[in-house]
Amino acid sequence: MVGDRMSVAYKGILSVIGGTPLVELAQLSEGLGFSLYAKLEMANPGGSIKDRTALTMLDEKIRSGELVAGKSTVVESSSGNLAVGLAQVCGYHRIRFICVVDAKTNSHNIGMLHAYGAEVELVSHPDADGEYLPARIRRVRELLDEIPGAYWPNQYANLSNPRAHETTMQEIVSAVGRVDYLFAAVSSFGTLRGCAQYVAQHGLSTRIVAVDAVGSHIFEGQPRTRRLLPGHGASTRPALFDPTAADDVVHVTDADCIAGCRLLVETEAILAGASSGAAVTALLRAAPRIPAGSVCVVILADRGDRYLQTVYSDDWVGRNIDFTPRQTSSATTSC
Length: 335
Ligand SMILES: Cc1ncc(COP(=O)(O)O)c(C=O)c1O
Description:
binds pyridoxal-5'-phosphate; 34% helix; six-stranded mixed beta sheet; 15% strand; alpha/beta; 9 strands; 2 domains; single chain; three-stranded parallel beta sheet; Rossmann fold; globular
């Protein structure tokens, strides 16, 4: 029934970050023998899980007076969801935000950054090996030297990043009580490490499954392959990486992401981003080994409307991905 949820008035857009819904996926999990829930991080106001990271990384600095409206500048290298999250927090607090992006950043995201009032600094030349990340980080460092007092949150090494996601796991546990398996896509490792910290601190028995991209360099042993879909995976191991945080890892291809996304929207009418499709495919691959009666949760990190030109475009998929509908094949499974 429409309007069945509690109506409350909140103070400011940042106070509705977190507290996202947990939804049972009864249609997707029909016949699997265990219950399946999705944590809808796409319901954050900036559209992704990275709202939590952006807010937590800046909140302490704002509260302590290190970042001041109208005076301070935040500089970060990001072309995706974290950039939008930071633009939202900085916009709300009237803090200048310079986002360093590269030529691969899509125009939709650049448009969003401008709309939030962020400044966009474009790095147009990659390094000799074709990687943009080192060139972007160099530009961040130059800006930090040029702008007195500028602050670089550096999500890949900032311990406030995982701390932000202790709340994600706490919300999941308080909604369902017991969680046997959690599937979370990884990039900076903030989500997974934060959820694992909560599990360890509370003595829970949840098995945490990291969902990474084939070709990503977060875990060992992946060949360098071209990845087209953003979100999960990383070309270098993040400083936040902790091998003890994940009980298992599943590597998925771009085709797996598309299969998972399309299945999710067909069965549950949830339009989610590529890494959500990755998590769904990883869950389905592990399903034969999940004991009956288990409680499983997948984190759906962002909304699908940012992927209409890729994941949900038959034309784009046909030109770029070796994909046949209903396919869930891929490389590694240690689950
Ligand atoms: C869509 C999406 N999924 C998953 C992740 C991975 O999250 P984390 O950086 O916390 O490992 C990200 C990170 O940017 C993301 O944007």
